[in-house]
Amino acid sequence: MYHVLLGLGNIDDFVTAFDGKPFEGMTVRLFNPQTKLWSLYWADSTKGILDKPVVGSFDQSIGYFYNTDVFNGQDILVAFQWDKTDPHKPVWSQAFSTDKGKTWEWNWYMNFSRKE
């Protein structure tokens, strides 16, 4: 990850392979000092475009970020959560809601560790 815009943003790369095929993704995160909200934009090597951002902020060590999307033809609310309670082992998770946030289906977790 590296910082951009005098610290108002950062960018990271995600490089892996799926079914033996190379895959690369990136996140661009921008902080708006007026609203105190972060906008997180994702792009990957399958589409080559920036997705609509998830927008939110941190409450203590947990960040909550939301947007709307369409999944399998259905309107959904998307939640991303960054949990940095343990800064050496942050956890990113994603959930979908088809009922405007009354219930959530948590469908992806990524557990990170700091490179020593």
From TrEMBL:
It comes from the Bacteria. This is DUF4185 domain-containing protein. The lineage of its organism: Bacteria, Pseudomonadati, Bacteroidota, Cytophagia, Cytophagales.
